[in-house]
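In response to the reviewer comment on reproducibility (Comment 2.3), we provide here a single inverse folding case reported in full, input and output, so that an independent group could reproduce the run without further information from us. The structure tokens appear first.
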């Protein structure tokens, strides 16, 4: 799949990863002021996963996300301005300020929603994938979930169902090493989540989640297979989050300097930039221009979010029921 990565596509990949990183870093700073309502779980450090996978998708492909969903939303094309307003609880938000960080969705873009239910996305994407199959479409549905969710019965049932029905579904286990504060080395019985795939009759693939190119290639193969009727795949992306499970988590369960070492040695944005500039595919000036543009976008999104109106009492019962 590396042959598909033209210069424009590489610029797109970097822009998406940079947007996710800056979006999350800004939320980390602003949440500490106490102005943002609700809970926030940040995706910083995991950008190569969402970006490498979602670059293969169109708006008619569906994804189901997790409580750590901002990166998936941005990679799927959800409007950054609307996302920021949603997190700030404003009426101009993607879900009109009623969903907040853990429930951002945009069905028009195939984003079925971030999800506060651990492992909740598995059944959702089986439904979407079944609809695609029955309508004889070549679209796919993707479920992102974490190492903690890999032990949930909903995920096991979805994996089984996807094979039984031969669905165009991809299950992406983003193994960041910790289910909240519990190491996956303790909580997951096997060494690799992907090893469980054989129990459900599907391929299991392990990929370095710090390497955009590795993720992009592995995801491309799995998605192409699904589009051609080859059935589901379990893709385990091994990576790390930089911030705590939630904002305010002191991460005392992690080794001293663990995050600093990962940032220095493995950061996906840094390694991407070194590779593309070293190979002469992109210049540092081009990357720096994107950095500046993204910084301006994030600053403007915060400015608008702060000044936008909150939902009013009259909005309480809107968007509750769907009329068919």
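Designed residues, in position order:
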């Amino acid at each position: 799949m590396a042959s598909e990565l033209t210069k424009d596509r590489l610029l797109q990949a970097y822009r998406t990863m940079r947007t996710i990183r800056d979006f999350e870093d800004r939320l980390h700073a602003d949440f500490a002021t106490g102005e943002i309502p609700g809970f926030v779980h940040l995706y910083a450090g995991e950008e190569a996963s969402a970006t490498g996978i979602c670059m293969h998708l169109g708006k008619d492909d569906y994804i189901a996300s997790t409580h750590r969903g901002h990166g998936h939303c941005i990679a799927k094309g959800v409007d950054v301005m609307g996302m920021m307003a949603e997190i700030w609880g404003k009426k101009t938000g993607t879900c009109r300020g009623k969903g907040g960080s853990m429930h951002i969705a945009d069905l028009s873009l195939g984003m079925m929603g971030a999800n506060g239910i651990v492992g909740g996305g598995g059944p959702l994407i089986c439904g979407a994938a079944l609809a695609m199959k029955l309508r004889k479409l070549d679209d796919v549905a993707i479920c992102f979930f974490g190492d903690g969710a890999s032990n949930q019965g909903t995920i096991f049932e979805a994996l089984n169902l996807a094979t039984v029905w031969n669905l165009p579904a991809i299950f992406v286990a983003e193994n960041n090493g910790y289910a909240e504060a519990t190491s996956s080395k303790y909580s997951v019985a096997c060494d690799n989540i992907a090893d469980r795939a054989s129990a459900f009759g599907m391929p299991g693939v392990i990929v370095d989640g710090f390497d955009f190119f590795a993720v992009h290639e592995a995801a491309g193969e799995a998605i192409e297979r699904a589009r051609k009727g080859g059935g589901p795949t379990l893709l385990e992306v091994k990576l790390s989050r930089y911030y705590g499970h939630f904002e305010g988590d002191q991460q005392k369960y992690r080794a001293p300097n663990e995050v600093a070492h990962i940032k220095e040695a493995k950061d996906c944005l840094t390694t991407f930039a070194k590779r593309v500039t070293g190979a002469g595919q992109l210049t540092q000036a081009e990357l720096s221009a994107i950095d500046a543009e993204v910084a301006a976008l994030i600053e403007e999104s915060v400015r608008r979010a702060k000044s936008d109106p909150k939902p009013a009492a009259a909005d309480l019962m809107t968007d509750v029921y769907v009329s068919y």
